[in-house]
Design goal:
Blueprint: H1 5-24, H2 27-31, E1 34-42, E2 48-49, H3 51-59, E3 66-77, E4 80-91, E5 94-108, E6 111-121
Parallel strand pairs: 1-6
Antiparallel strand pairs: 1-2, 3-4, 4-5, 5-6
Length: 123
């Protein structure tokens, strides 16, 4: 399942928009990284579903964290893809959270969006 290079770049840009939005407090921008019915889930918890509910996650944050996503492995074809990636969250210049993402993405009107994003923290 080879993803064309331009789609890989578009998905990497989606991840960058996602990180900048959550770190910068842009609630609507973060919610708009997902499909209208998209979901974000932390392993072991119920998912948050829908752009407005997702935006509320960012509205409640004020911790100055910086999200760093690495080692993105993107697979798929056409208008559907999966991605696995690592996450480090920095606070006060120190790593405070590590883990991984398991994502499903879809291309809607030429734009890649998260359909479901699962974060699993390292023990």
């Amino acid at each position: 399942m080879t993803v064309p290079a331009d789609d890989i770049v578009a998905i990497q840009q989606l991840v960058a928009r996602y990180n900048h939005a959550i770190d910068g407090g842009d609630a609507e921008g973060w919610g708009n990284c997902f499909t209208p019915e998209g979901s974000f889930q932390i392993s072991g918890r119920e998912p948050t579903v829908g752009r407005e509910a997702l935006a509320e996650i960012v509205r409640r944050r004020a911790d100055g964290a910086r999200h760093v996503t690495t080692n993105m492995l993107i697979e798929g074809d056409g208008n559907a893809a999966t991605m696995r990636a690592y996450l480090e969250v920095l606070r006060a210049r120190e790593v405070s959270v590590t883990g991984s993402y398991t994502d499903t993405l879809v291309k809607v009107d030429g734009q890649w969006l998260f359909e479901h994003r699962l974060f699993t923290g390292d023990d």
